[in-house]
Each structure stands twice: as C-alpha cells, then as structure tokens.
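Protein modeling request. Please complete all fields; requests missing the sequence field cannot be processed.
Requester role: graduate student
Desired output: 3D structure, token encoding
Chains: 1
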Amino acid sequence: MSFSDPSPSPVPQHLSAVVREFQSINRVSAWAPFTWMRKGFADLFIAQFNSLFYGVAFALIGWTIAFFYGASYGLTLTASSAFMLIAPVLALGLYALSHQIEQGETPRLRTTLTVWRGNMANIALYALVTGVVGLIWARAAVVIFAVFYNTGLPSAGEFVTAIMRLDNIEFVVAYFGVGALFATFVFAISVVAIPLMYDRKTDAITAMLLSLAVVARNPGAMVVWASLLVALVSLGFVTGFLGLVYTAPIAGHATWHAYRALIPARED
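Delivered output (268 residues):
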C-alpha cells in the first residue's frame, strides 16, 4: 500500500487577513508627525464645538483627579499618569469625528458618543490591559517613594527641589526611568490600536501587535510622534489641565491621521 503526501492545507482566511494587515504598514518620514499635527489642528477647526466637548471632558477628568488626590501630590502625579495611559480609549470620539470629516460629512457629536459599541469587547480588553499597567505603575511609584524617602513622603516643595536641583539623583532616575518604561510600553501598543479597533473592528491582540510593528518599522517617526504628544500633554498639565481643552482634541485628531498614514484605508 502506498501513501501519498497530504497536500498542504490552505492558510486560514483570518490568518491571511492578519498577514495582510502587517504587510500594509507604511514607512513614513521622521517629520511626518508634524503633518499629522497640522491635520489634527485643521480637524479641530472644522469640528469646533464637537472636538472641544471632548477637550473639556479631558480637563474635567484632570480636575477630578486633582480634587480627590490634592492632599497627596505623589498620588496626583501617579493618577494623572495612569489617566493618560488610557487616553487613547477616551479619545475614541475624536477619531470618529476625524473619520466623519474624512468622509466629507458634517461632524456630529451625538453619533460619536456610542461608537465604542461597534467593537466593545476588544476595546474593553485593551482598556483592561492599559488599566492594569497603570495600576502596576502606581504601585511601583509608591515603592520608589518608600525606598528613597524612608523618613516619609516628602513635601511638594521637597519633591520639586529634588527634581530641579537633582538633590536626590537616585530617586529622580528611578522615578522617571520606571515611568518612562511603562509609558513606552503603552505607547508602543497604542499607536494605531484604538483606531484599528474602531475602523476595521480588529481584535485587541492583533491591534496591539500591529502597533508594535508600526513602532518597529518607523522608529524615527515614532520618537518624534511621542515627543509631540508629550509636549501637548505637558502643556495641558502645566496649565492646571485647562490646556487639555485644546491640546487633547489636537492629539486625538492627529492620532487618526497618524493611523491613516501608517495603515492606509482599505480599497473596499
């Protein structure tokens, strides 16, 4: 009896789709993020009140954090950092507004308030992942304070002095070094994740992996992009969160254009 070699099984359709997603990632110039920012500002100008609604929401969340944790600046900083980790989810409505503008439609706030329902399970999974990362970072920050300030939590003045004068260089390096690691990880899995889940209903794992692939393929542009986002967020923070009314919508709209530049729209 002779046995013939089985013919290779075809690649599953969903796997082929994932492969095509990865192959569609574009390489962009290191200066491309400035174009995304310009387009984001243009969307803010077009959408106006609709965009500012989300900007006010970001500012209100910031003020709420400051109100409840105002007695402890350490917790305020940590909570604010965790808040920004899940900002891509909170900016989902801004992506939807940019999508409406892209389609030549009149921006409508009401329809953007429920767009998360289209892929709720995966968006929730992404929010859970980033939320857990935020909680771990919060715990790590508490440990860092405990290790380098064993006499108790320093006052706000002592904390600022330690940073500005580098009086406690070990603390500064540990606090911002660990924070940068958490922020870099979340940024790497977030670059195009939420726009993908909104636009193409991509599952959370694939969306986060695609974001990692985007960063790997465009390291120069991603460094510039991250720097611009940090600048916008910092401007919002140093103005007592008031600046977020404008900077958050610009960042959100620009993120949509980053997604379009990095992963082009499907022909269908």
